[in-house]
Amino acid sequence: MATSSISGLASGLDSASIIEQFMKLEALPQTQLKNRITSQQSVVTKLQSLNSKAALLTTKAEELAKPAAWTGLTGTSSNENIGITASSTASAMSLDVTVTSVARTHQLGFATAAAKTDVVTGASTQVTLDRFDGSPLTVETGDGTLQGLVDALNDPANATGVRATLVSSSSGYRLMVESTETGAQSDFALTAADGSALLGGAVVRAGTDAEIDLGAGITATSTTNTFTELVPGVDLTLNAAARAGDVATVLVQRDVPALSEQMKGLVDAVNSLVSDIDSGTAYNATTKTSGALAGDAGVRALRQQLLSTVFPGDGTSLADMGIQTDRYGKLVFDEEAFAAAYEADPEGVSARITSGGNGFAERVRVVADAASDKYTGSLTTAIESRQSGISRLQDDVDNWDTRLELRRTTLQNQFNALETALAQMQSQSSWLSSQLASLPSYSA
């Protein structure tokens, strides 16, 4: 319980201010503890940032260290109307492609125009769809009108395999019906139930298969405009603008730009982590202060380990494939040198990067993982250790709160006792003075 102080009632002293000055002196050890907590929290924040970047670097390096990351191929085409897709099972290859025909739907355009409400199915409300699979289908139109016919052909429940469209003309609507699938086998006929022609008969545009000529007497056909597995792992697609006579050279080759971009990303991630370490350990000559991590030998060791990954340890370097250190202590990546080296010896370059040969990416992964592992990482354990230290310091600060409160109470009690004693003495002095003043005076 707090004790009230009697500030200078008898002595005239500002005891409250005196007590505050005493308390500031008494609180100096606690203030030093609080400053240490602030300093340690700053260190923990820096370490946590480094740990996050090291974990991200681990992930990047792990992906690039996998041999599978270096087997990817990409397909390119010299004609935008002829596309190519290469899967992981493809092999490097080159094909010259000439489009002989594109896949089209089977289409009927009926000659006679009619109103939507006109009955067009003859004596019956049914029509016969003689489909490409050789099984005639009877379709009930409901009322036999043009609109009823269109609705029945398009009804998913009827599973007609065709779609009907009404095209406006000066004398009404003309009916167009086409197969939902492409290919030569998509043909069909549409007649009244008794076999007679509908709407004056139809002009036919036959469905066709897509066909390409690969040269040397080799052709390929497809009922769609996609040639799936044209060669193992490779699909070729004719887009909507493709026409007979289009030619293209299609290539399946190693995806050097993608690999180069991944390598650059890895080098950038290493440099980013190194830059943060430099920032945290640097000395500012202007302010004459050091970074929060200036005294952390573990962080400095991590920097050196990261930069050392560029050296395989056998007396060689990675300079011939575009990776080396500069005079500022950072890694540099020459994309052109890397591409040239990879084109010349893809297996050799990948072996010097991947885990199979303890390559560069694998060395980076080992260093970054040793720092950021969530259980045993050097940065992780450093963070946990400092957080434990902060917790102990905070306990000491809390204990000082209790100690200082007791000291304040003691000082207040002492000053209150002083004021009380002085007040009593002043009261006695006044009484004695009054007694003396009341005594009779005697003259000689």
TrEMBL record:
Compartment list: Secreted; Bacterial flagellum
Signal sequence segment: none
Domain of life of the organism encoding this protein: Bacteria
One GO cellular component, as annotated: bacterial-type flagellum hook
Keywords attached to this entry: Bacterial flagellum, Cell projection, Cilium, Coiled coil, Flagellum, Secreted
InterPro entries in alphabetical order: FliD, FliD_C, FliD_N
Sequence ranges assigned to domain Flagellar hook-associated protein 2 N-terminal in this UniProt record: 11-106
Positions of the Flagellar hook-associated protein 2 C-terminal domain: 207-427
Gene Ontology biological process terms from the UniProt entry: bacterial-type flagellum-dependent cell motility; cell adhesion
Described purpose of this protein according to its UniProt entry: Required for morphogenesis and for the elongation of the flagellar filament by facilitating polymerization of the flagellin monomers at the tip of growing filament. Forms a capping structure, which prevents flagellin subunits (transported through the central channel of the flagellum) from leaking out without polymerization at the distal end.
Complexes and interactors: Homopentamer.
Family: Belongs to the FliD family.
Protein name, entry field: Flagellar hook-associated protein 2
Organism of provenance: Nocardioides bruguierae
